[in-house]
Amino acid sequence: MPETKKQIILEYCRAKALERIGRxxxxxxxxxxxxxxxxxxxxxxxxxxxxxxxxxxxxYDRFTDPPIKEPYASRxxxxxxxxxxxSAEASLRKLDEIYREYRDxxxxxxxxxxxxxxQKGKLRASSLAANPRVNPQKRAEKAEIATWFRIxxxxxxxxxxxxxLRKASEEFRRLFSP
Length: 178
Hints:
- This protein folds into 2 domains: 5-57; 72-176.
- The chain has 9 helices and 2 strands, in the order H-E-H-H-E-H-H-H-H-H-H.
- By secondary structure, it is mostly helical.
- The chain is flat and about 55 Å long.
């Protein structure tokens, strides 16, 4: 059975006894994966695999998840989703609810972490929307989702009403109704 990217990444770290993984180690892993699989692997994917395995990763780019501190990490883990419009809406509504709780409790750190996640979502959705290798319908959906994130970031208090109006619009129904 062929090795997976994840297996190669973790085995490489064990073999090299890497304690701290920075940009240099990420590049070495990219080269290792290219040599063994013949495919390019993104640094953010490598960093994500290593963080999930509990490694000390000191690499950040616009696609890597921010290292959220407790107690926020447990509460916000896996809440940012935008596979499709429905998952994006559910994710935004849940994050909006949590943001309001943090705001009501004057928890600035919690508010900042929610905003950070939504900024990351906006960047990722925008990137997918601009990728010509992505199916045109999926690109349109990701562009719509990126707009949702942008509107929330600009006006969180108006977002819920805006989203309801947006989904009721003729343009939205024309673009996204089956």
